[in-house]
Structure of RNA (guanine-9-)-methyltransferase domain-containing protein 1:
Amino acid sequence: MLISRCGLRILSKLGCRAKSLIEGYPSSLKLCTPVNSASRYYCIKPEGSLDTLDYEPSTSKLFDNIDYDLITGGDEETLSKLKRLILEIDLLYESGEQIPSHLKIDQWQSLLQLSSRSSRMKQLRYLFLIEKKKENRIVRKLERRAERLERYENEPKNDHIEYGLLRNSMFHRIYEKQMNSLYNYRLCEAMLYGQDILIDCSYDGHMSFKEQSNCAKQLLLMWSYNRTHKDPFNIIFCNVNKESTVFKGLSKTIPTIDDPTFPFNYTKQSYLDLYPREKLVYLTPHCNEELKEYNYDDVYIIGAMVDKMKVEPLSLAKGKRDKIRMAKLPLDLYLDWKQGTKNLTINQMIMIMADLKINNNWVEALKHIPRRKLLEVDAYQRGHIGNNQRISAKRIREDFRRNSVYNLLIKK
């Protein structure tokens, strides 16, 4: 309804120039005249005469057509909790808070899992912003389409061949479906001949619901980047629980995840069941051993964990318990850290390892770390920088103090 309303409002301004767009809409969606000088248009024909129809604002709310059975699963305690949540959202709606116009079943269930009122308000505000972004994206798309059609109609006509979009072209257009087929083919090649890398998905119980949702997004970004890389990994998700929030969020964004022809590997088995113990290397920021260079005979493990609320050495404990080798990225050797923890996201780890696999160049691989986390050398020292090596923050501060004391003595 929102898409049609926004699109028809734009097309009505263009008039006959965008008539072809209007014909593409369903016949039931007709642009009616404004009601009682209110600057609002309706996409359905109002019942009754326009002269006697009084304008009334819409009173539909996001909990009018809620499916209680699918959300609660027949549990009476969850049902009573859901009713209290509906009353709370009703008060927020009446007080003018940012509430989305529609909530899905999984969004209701996620709100029920939040314990505090402030966390629920943050989640509702986040869903409201996501909804508005989608609406604005649709409006901009329709505006660009209408402008493009208007520009084409105003161009001078000639009898010669015209090249460009919606016209003849001397080149074949590469569609997104063809690009996806190419990326999937390269993933299939990586399964046969590429380097294996493991994602340990056994940390669901150590993350909050928000961290689990964030972890699913990072896994999606990781998988998307890997399939577009020139030398992709063969990513294997191990210790997978199909009923976990992380896997459900990932399978929601990748609907064909269980398709036999889709290049996505996951198993409920442990990495100890898949590979020999001596070949495994667990990448964790909590150990003391640094990864000097990429070894093509090793199989590296990345933990699928987001620990923003509490930073605990869970991956270190698991590596010691399984008696496998562990290593961390040499961040202190090549970078000068400024702020934030040195726990990188999952997609950043796969970016670094994928570039490191090509030529074992740490300087090039570590460029995927956000610049905001690194210290700017010019803030302390204007001099030289070593050959592709990092100058430590401690050394910079010591040189700065030493030069300051020396200049002070010279002045005296």
